[in-house]
Amino acid sequence: MSERLLTLREACRRLGVHPNTLRKWDREGKIRVVRTVGGRRRIPESELERLMGFVKPDVSRKAVIYVRVSQKQKGDLEGQRQSLLDYAKSRGYEVVAVLEDVASGLNEKRKSLSKLFDLVEERRIGVVVVAFKDRLTRFGFSYLERYFSSHGVRIEVVNGEEPKDAYQELVEDLTALVSSFAGKLYGLRSHKYERVVEGVKQLIAE
Fold first, then answer.
1. Contact by Cβ (8 Å): 22, 31
2. What whole-number distance in Å separates Cα of residue 46 and Cα of residue 84?
3. Domain span at residue 142?
4. What are phi and psi of 191, to 5 degrees?
5. Do 177 and 150 share a domain, yes or no?
6. How far apart are CA 4 and CA 43, in angstroms?
7. Exactly one of 2, 70, 149, 179 is catalytic; which is it?
8. Please, are residues 71 and 81 in contact by the beta-carbon 8 Å criterion?
9. Cα 206 from Cα 169, distance rounded (Å)
10. Other C-beta atoms within 10 Å of 34: how many?
11. CATH number, residue 181
12. Is 70 a catalytic residue?
């Protein structure tokens, strides 16, 4: 499989340098550059990794605060944000971004979560601060933690157990999961689908 080639802009963003710096390194032979048919510079990803060893600054104390609440918890957004800011300050972190989502923990297309992945993959931060594990994801937290760690980023969970008011969100997520699987099995308009979903709702309500 051919190696990925980055544009000049992508490489500069990853390295944290000005485009003129990369152009200068190219002229001086300090960086291996591939030219396109049109003469544009492309930097092999392996070359970027080599450069990051001595160009990339220490980001171990740079933190991103990630806040997520469900639609019914929107009133808790400010309190959660401030609590995490206070925690980061007490640890001496430099907060480079506060990312917020109002969505379910099952939603994989959260805008701020996507931004968080970009920061992690670009190695621009060293720590992600969250209130609870499920603020990042309802399931698979250990996989996410391992992925972040592979990019030199650690996740710090401030609180151990979920608050009591998280029960309603958990119920909503469970109902959404059952609805999704039942829809795939029986079709969204079938009577079986309706019975399964309604049965789960009644079971939870008991």
1. yes
2. 36
3. 62-157
4. -70, -35
5. no
6. 9
7. 70
8. no
9. 17
10. 13
11. 1.10.287.2170
12. yes
H/E element, 62: strand 62-69
Residues 177 and 144 in one domain: no
- In this prediction, residue 95 carries a pLDDT of 96
The per-residue pLDDT string of the chain (206 residues; one tens digit each, 9 = 90 and over) reads 567 888 888 888 887 788 888 889 889 888 889 898 888 899 888 888 787 765 556 788 999 999 998 877 788 889 899 999 999 999 999 999 999 999 877 777 899 999 999 999 888 899 999 998 888 987 788 999 999 998 889 999 998 766 555 555 555 555 555 555 555 555 555 556 556 556 555 555 55
Whether residues 113 and 192 fall in one domain: no
195 alpha carbon, distance to own chain's centre: 36
| Residues 6 or more apart in contact with residue 146 via CB below 8 angstroms | none
